[in-house]
TrEMBL record:
<dbReference type="InterPro" id="IPR000873">
    <property type="entry name" value="AMP-dep_synth/lig_dom"/>
</dbReference>
<feature type="domain" description="AMP-binding enzyme C-terminal">
    <location>
        <begin position="432"/>
        <end position="509"/>
    </location>
</feature>
<keyword id="KW-0548">Nucleotidyltransferase</keyword>
<keyword id="KW-0808">Transferase</keyword>
<dbReference type="InterPro" id="IPR045851">
    <property type="entry name" value="AMP-bd_C_sf"/>
</dbReference>
<keyword id="KW-0547">Nucleotide-binding</keyword>
<dbReference type="GO" id="GO:0016878">
    <property type="term" value="F:acid-thiol ligase activity"/>
</dbReference>
<dbReference type="GO" id="GO:0005524">
    <property type="term" value="F:ATP binding"/>
</dbReference>
<protein>
    <submittedName>
        <fullName>Enterobactin synthase subunit E</fullName>
        <ecNumber>2.7.7.58</ecNumber>
    </submittedName>
</protein>
<keyword id="KW-0436">Ligase</keyword>
<keyword id="KW-0067">ATP-binding</keyword>
<feature type="domain" description="AMP-dependent synthetase/ligase">
    <location>
        <begin position="30"/>
        <end position="381"/>
    </location>
</feature>
<dbReference type="GO" id="GO:0016779">
    <property type="term" value="F:nucleotidyltransferase activity"/>
</dbReference>
<dbReference type="Pfam" id="PF13193">
    <property type="entry name" value="AMP-binding_C"/>
</dbReference>
<dbReference type="InterPro" id="IPR050237">
    <property type="entry name" value="ATP-dep_AMP-bd_enzyme"/>
</dbReference>
<dbReference type="Pfam" id="PF00501">
    <property type="entry name" value="AMP-binding"/>
</dbReference>
<dbReference type="InterPro" id="IPR025110">
    <property type="entry name" value="AMP-bd_C"/>
</dbReference>
Length: 521
């Protein structure tokens, strides 16, 4: 299959981060815009080369893994390009991750370095780094953007450009994170060849070129904002990427006006907030041509309002960091854009919708989505047991998503087989949350379920049976305990229900369906 992808041109000799050297006119154009200023393509290229040299001088070598957790800023893009060029592999953590998650990523990847900011809001990441160093064996370097304290300043990772290693296009280039549908997130290896194809094809499909200006409102470490086409796809096409420190309208609308943003991406909970803000804003949003929405299903009424309120085309995106991406096309009829989550990006994407008995579901019938293709992984990193259950012998990835396929080939996402709360696009693994509850409190049992939420789509509801019914934990107790355990904020339960017992099935297993029904009632 690899030979087929090469022969048919899906994979070529592209190496991520090496496509910035173009015509003099393009090199002089703006590559990055932040609230503090801008960087040209030529300057970005030069800074990436100097940081690449600095990383090698610091003792990192091709194949080393580096956990990267930086806010949307120039440092993140420069570091990413430098890592790609050296063959050192970034493991992209999310901004919300804290000690528990970073420790897991370092341990699983065998990372030798951790790159973090000095501080974001109430979190001093130098303290996170200290705890991770205490809990892991492989970590040798901590680089800090800002005041490094006892560690190394990221700004000092600099050197005169040197001859760099030449990664093979089919080598792993980066690690993305799974949604963590069962326990902590799994590592998704993406190669130069497969991710470069994703960048090329998504830019083409979305009409992104040298005149495009992409606003990264969401964290760039997410696949959506990184490469769908995101920051990397836009830069590769010669366009401009605008880096927003937060996805709120008060932060993003001024950037849209100032930079002439043409395309951006949001998760569904943010869309109504932007639509409301658009009614009273004085900022000129007329440059915006495309709003991508993905990460969870967008409700029909909100989808219909986007073109009227923002004056742009809505593009629904359904995909996964594991690979397969589906898009509504920019010229699709309104009915398709509003009611579906699009169709596959690539003609080489193979998709199957299977009923529970393994037979093919017909148009309009619900089934689980299986897929393989030129940019879909064939196995998680260091997850042998999980790979045996998530991939078929033919290499198809079991997404765990329940979908319906229309006669035209567009998908409607119905739900999930996996036990996970889709909280505004952030996937909250219920098993992990239950384990934290049981570790933090004296409980007979704990069950975490998803309940409908008008803003987030789903909220996380923790149902607990305390050992001492006279002194049950409160929601405030739970929130404090999770903070104390260094758990990402999006995993903290939104609601707490104290019960005398949890419903069980006839064979003695927890019956979450009955539990959810009892709460809905």
């Amino acid at each position: 299959m690899a030979r087929t992808y090469r022969e048919q041109g899906y994979w070529n000799t592209d190496v991520l981060g090496t496509w910035l050297a173009r015509t003099p006119e393009e090199r002089a154009g703006t590559a990055l815009v932040t609230a503090a200023g801008s960087v040209t393509h030529e300057e970005l290229d030069r800074r990436a080369d100097r940081m690449a040299a600095g990383l090698l001088r610091a003792g990192l070598t091709p194949g080393d893994r580096v956990v990267v957790q930086l806010p949307n800023d120039v440092d993140l893009v420069v570091l990413s390009l430098a890592l790609f060029r050296t063959g050192i592999l970034p493991v992209y953590a999310l901004p919300a991750h804290r000690t528990t998650e970073i420790t897991h990523l370092v341990t699983t990847s065998g990372a030798v370095a951790y790159v973090c900011p000095e501080r974001v809001l109430d979190c001093d990441f130098r303290l996170v780094a200290r705890e991770v160093l205490d809990r892991t064996d492989s970590l040798r370097h901590v680089f800090v953007a800002g005041d490094p304290g006892p560690y190394t300043a990221l700004s000092s990772v600099d050197g005169d450009p040197v001859a760099l290693p030449s990664p093979d296009p089919e080598d792993v280039a980066l690690f993305l994170l799974s949604g963590g549908t069962s326990g902590p997130p799994k590592l998704i290896p993406r190669t130069h060849a497969d991710y470069a194809y994703q960048l090329r094809e998504t830019a083409r499909l979305c009409g992104v070129g040298p005149d495009s200006v992409y606003l990264a409102a969401l964290p760039v470490e997410h696949n959506f904002a990184l490469g769908c086409p995101g920051v990397l796809g836009t830069l590769r096409a010669g366009g401009t990427a605008v880096l927003a420190p937060a996805p709120t309208a008060d932060v993003c609308f001024p950037l849209i006006e100032r930079a002439g943003v043409t395309i951006t991406s949001l998760v569904p909970p943010l869309v109504p907030l932007w639509l409301d803000a658009a009614e009273w804003t004085d900022h000129d949003l007329s440059s915006l041509r495309v709003l991508q929405v993905g990460g969870a299903r967008l409700d029909l009424e909100t989808a219909r309002q986007v073109p009227k309120a923002l004056g742009c085309t809505l593009q629904q995106v359904y995909g996964m960091a594991e690979g397969l991406l589906n898009y509504t096309r920019l010229d699709d009829p309104e009915d398709v854009i509003v009611h579906t989550q699009g169709r596959p990006l690539s003609p080489a994407d193979e998709v199957r919708v299977l009923r529970e008995d393994g037979s093919e579901a017909g148009p309009g019938e619900t089934g689980e989505l299986f897929t393989r293709g030129p940019y879909t992984l064939r196995g998680y990193y260091r997850a042998g047991e999980r790979n045996r259950t998530r991939f078929t012998q033919e290499g198809f990835y079991r997404t765990g998503d329940l979908v319906r396929r229309t006669v035209e080939g567009n998908f409607e996402v119905v739900g999930r087989i996996n036990d996970v709360v889709n909280r505004g696009g952030e996937k909250v693994p219920t098993l992990e949350v239950e384990e934290h509850l049981l570790a933090a409190f004296p409980l007979v049992g704990a069950a975490v379920i998803a309940l409908p939420d008008p803003l987030m789509g789903e909220r996380t509801c923790a149902c607990v049976v305390p050992k001492d019914s006279a002194h049950p934990p409160t929601l405030r107790d739970v929130q404090a305990a999770f903070r104390g355990r260094g758990v990402a904020a999006y995993k903290v339960p939104d609601q707490l229900v104290v019960l005398e017992s949890l419903p069980m099935t006839g064979v003695g297993k927890l019956d979450k369906r009955a539990l959810r029904a009892s709460l809905d009632a």
